[in-house]
Amino acid sequence: MFEAAELGQKLTKVQYEAELPKLRAALLQAHFALKDTPVPVIVIISGADGAGKGEMVHRLNEWLDPRGVDTHAFWQSSDEERERPRYWRFWRVLPARGRVGILFGSWYSEPIIRRVYGEIKSSKLDTELDRIACFEKMLADDGAVIVKLWFHLSKKAQRRQLKELESNPKTHWRVLPMDWQHFKLYDKFTEASERAIRRTDTGHAPWHLIEAADRRYRELTAGKILLQAIEDRLQQLRRNPSPAPAANPAVASRPSRRASTTILDHVDLTQQLSDKEYAKQLEKYQGRLSRLAWAAWEKKVASVALFEGWDAAGKGSAIRRVTEAMDPRLYRIVPIAAPTDEERARHYLWRFWRHLPRAGTTTIFDRSWYGRVLVERVERFAREDEWRRAFLEINEFEEQLVEGGIVVSKFWIHIGKDEQLRRFKQREEIAFKRYKITDEDWRNRKQWDAYKAAINDMVAHTSTEFAPWTLVAGNDKKFARVQILRTLCRHLEAAL
Amino acid sequence: MFEAAELGQKLTKVQYEAELPKLRAALLQAHFALKDTPVPVIVIISGADGAGKGEMVHRLNEWLDPRGVDTHAFWQSSDEERERPRYWRFWRVLPARGRVGILFGSWYSEPIIRRVYGEIKSSKLDTELDRIACFEKMLADDGAVIVKLWFHLSKKAQRRQLKELESNPKTHWRVLPMDWQHFKLYDKFTEASERAIRRTDTGHAPWHLIEAADRRYRELTAGKILLQAIEDRLQQLRRNPSPAPAANPAVASRPSRRASTTILDHVDLTQQLSDKEYAKQLEKYQGRLSRLAWAAWEKKVASVALFEGWDAAGKGSAIRRVTEAMDPRLYRIVPIAAPTDEERARHYLWRFWRHLPRAGTTTIFDRSWYGRVLVERVERFAREDEWRRAFLEINEFEEQLVEGGIVVSKFWIHIGKDEQLRRFKQREEIAFKRYKITDEDWRNRKQWDAYKAAINDMVAHTSTEFAPWTLVAGNDKKFARVQILRTLCRHLEAAL
Q1: Residues B55 and B131 in one domain
Q2: Closest chain B residue to the Cα of A28, Cα to Cα
Q3: Which of residues A260 and A330 earns the better pLDDT score?
Q4: Interface test with B, best of A93, A300, A317, A329 (most B CBs within 10 A)
Q5: Are B291 and B170 part of one and the same domain?
Q6: ipTM, 2 dp
């Protein structure tokens, strides 16, 4: 495959300088036009050592409007990064819509290097590459333009390049001891890279192989590729301002499957606890949870617990019974309301990634990413293709959490429609609870059946082996709270 | 002082339950009213071990609307925190306007504990307390309501409390081995705490001593204090929607001091370099900078370099000459444009704290916090009291950077008014530079004298011993670039 990038391509200074001004003007124009679009551009700079990747980063920063560029180099990870699922460090630097993110090093570096050093088998490399393909598809579906540049050097050219850099006092520092180590592994590196490129070369995130021996050629080529990618998208937006294919009306109008509507109906809402039994069980499980939370801290096991449920199902009070048992240093509650503009400017999962717990601690989400397939679906804030694809995206997300060692617990607190009405009315009578009932709650209530269908779909699609839903029988709050505490204890015990 | 909190205050269950519903309703109402104001509320929970601080955190979370509360417990710091100035971890969790931030542990914990353990002298404690007073004043000036709660236990009550907690299996976990260790140091703890409280008990951030032996008394008292503080501010806002005293017109209309207008005039704008000399010097200092940047990485010395200057002064190209010499893994450029809403919702320095470099790396700010005393002053985005107080705030900020081991370099790139005009016209002629000239630039140019006065004031007030300004002679770009590179090298050499 790499033969195509060993043709001896080069440009004279005259050719370069003849083309450059045009390219720069066009790039800037495209960059400015990009600002007002919902499109983030992700540029991945990868390839051989000594291929001028660092210089390329400088060049792109020079050619684009620096105010619209975020450059990130991935290198040593911090403990905050190491204590979270691996992709956390990538999520944290994804560019906002309308901006260009230049990534020097990326999600490709680690799998390739580990394969080169024989730390992982090729089957494991493939698994990683599939994950990458999945991740990039998700970003592309969300509207991102992904430009992946691979700067290639033949073995000969790489040796020459490293020697040249090293002998020049001005560029000497660019050559790290690691680079020569890598050079010895040139063939293995080529093999792993080829595999990576082949397996992740997709329509929505294509690879561009660039012959890198000549500076002028590689820089101009890279600039043109980036320009083309942005211009293509801008043109596409002008033709069709909606960034994704329209929902398929045939699918949209399909009634919810009868079968799935029975999932919630199977929750036995008559289950209850007496006051006495409640007091006993509450003490038992809160005590157990408190000990488990400390044990998790010691063993550096993180947890995510998310709470969803009908309005007035008792989410808040259930969460309090959980947190009462935990030292405030060990958990954080993240209430999910309207996103901030920094959140809105990114993939909808970004705001959840940013709050993932560090090792040994717990993040409690009061509402969660499931809003995508619940309120956003029912209220049509998300298009059908968006919420449909969210099932897969969420499963992939949760799988990464679990792989990262996080204990995931998901609660849907279910109540009957009559019980909800009773609680709405009761709340309106108590001064410090009245605020909890808003017009929105009444509006939502009218959509009961639409929500029910959405909940059923959600549970059917996202109750996975690694992150199953717990449907909580919430008509009796006491029963519900104990069920939640017991489940959390069970999940932690299994993990510790 | 603490005797006032050893009176044996307590409440019966009947008293408690008679008052609680009223308090909760009022708290919620106040919390809701707060949402639409520009006021962040910071609640600090401190005091003796075993005084129910953790429970208090739970209670406040229960009483307030959880969607408007951020709770943070400070405990072990991460490496990302340790590698930055000490207050970074506090800045990172400051609540946004309209929200309540509950801090369990705070900037008080470390100085007090270190004093108790004899790690610092009382004079050092005082220095720390002065810093705290300064920090809190800054937040208060910015509109924050700061509620500092100190939960006090007599020595006897503390022993009883710890024993009680420990003997109950349900609360056993709340007692850490550390707590008994602290208990042995009760008298020292009391002494250091008294000192801390006395020295930081200010009108804008008063301490509230709460007798903590009785749960019902302490919780109700704390709730009432918080309520009062929020209500007072709400009432004040209703009377005077502007959160700070209006600018003094006598001061506002005062012409800039003649004397200070000479600072910029002293920059010798005729300085220049020949092409040959430039090439030689550029290579020399870029080479030196590249080696120094790696040395700084090895020694874990961080740097902040900020660039300010007239429009068209050549900031961007000067920054590129700097970054060309550095490995992309070692620096980040942060362009400062309009703040995001997350940034707008906090003190104006917050957005700069969030980008401070980790140990061994450099953050380059393309424009900076000095916008407060430049564009915000000239365009009247900031009131006079705001930009005036910014001088002190900025000095305090930069002092913390320097104390945190960061090498701070500040560049004002100066050019003459004629030279600016020449460059504006030139830029309009080159396609890929045209975007750099906007109507705003022409507008700014009309304000030349107002900016000049602001710049002079800025340099006069913020060129400190620990973070002096470098005024760069920018009429000759070559000279300016070399001056900047040379200064950066000198600063790094002094630090390494």
Answers
A1: yes
A2: B432
A3: A330
A4: A329
A5: no
A6: 0.83
